[in-house]
Amino acid sequence: MVTLKVATADIPPFVYLREVNGTWIMNRGIEAELLHLMSQYLNFSIQLLKCDNLGVKLDNNTWTELFGLIANKNSSLPLIPGSLRPVFTGWLWACLVLTSSYSGCLYSLMSFPTRVKTINTVEELAEAQREHRVRVIATTSDAYYDMIRSLSKSCDKLRSHPGSSYYDNERGECKYQECYKKLSHTKEFKDLNKQLDSLPEETKAKKAYERYIFYL
C-alpha cells in the first residue's frame, strides 16, 4: 500500500488534529473527511506531518513549516484549507443572483399577469367600461368622433338627459348616470350640442350605434 505524506496544520473547521501515542491523526474536519474518503477509494495510507502554520520565507530563500516541508520534498501533499474558497464563494453569489432574478420575475407575473382578457365585442367593451377596467377615449379629429356626432336619435336622448349614457343590453334601452351631469356645464358639451342640432336625421351608422356603449 502506498503511503502519502500530508503536511497540515490544526486549522478548524477544516482540519482538527489530535495526538495519539506520539502520532498525529485527523479525527474530524471538512478536508480531513475528504482525505479519508480518497484514501479508502484509492487504497493508500496517510502519514501526517504536523505544522504550526503555513510558514514564511527567510532571507536565504528557504521556507519554514508547511511550505518548507513541500520545498524540501518531505511532504507529498500540502493540505491547505481555503484554497477553493473563492470558487465556492463565486458560485454561491451566482446562485443567489439567478434565484433572486427568477423568483422576482415569477412573483411579478403571479401578482400582476401581463395577459388580460381580450375584448372582442362591443358588449364586452361596454361591460369593461362599466367595471372601470378600461377607459374609452377618442380624439375630436377622427372618424369615430364624427360618426357619433351624426347619430341624431341617440343624441336627442343625450340632450334631454344631460350626462353620460350607456346602452343596457338586457333591457335594450339607454341608461343615464347621474355622476356625469357635470359634463353638461362644460364649454365642450355646449359646443357639441350646437353641432348636434345641425346633423341629419338619418345616417348609415345609426343602427350600429344602438348596440354599443356611448360615453361623452
From TrEMBL:
Q: Could you state one GO cellular component term attached to this entry?
A: plasma membrane
Its main subcellular localisation, reduced to a broad class, is membrane
Task: List the InterPro entries hit by this protein, alphabetically.
Answer: Insect_Ionotropic_Sensory_Rcpt
The record describes its membrane topology as: Multi-pass membrane protein
The keyword Transmembrane is annotated on this UniProt entry: yes
Gene3D superfamilies xrefs: Periplasmic binding protein-like II
**Where in or outside the cell?**
Cell membrane
Query: Which branch of life, at top level?
Result: Eukaryota
Any transmembrane segments, and where? 91-110
UniProt keyword terms in alphabetical order: Cell membrane, Glycoprotein, Membrane, Receptor, Transmembrane, Transmembrane helix
Q: What is this protein called?
A: Uncharacterized protein
The species is Medioppia subpectinata
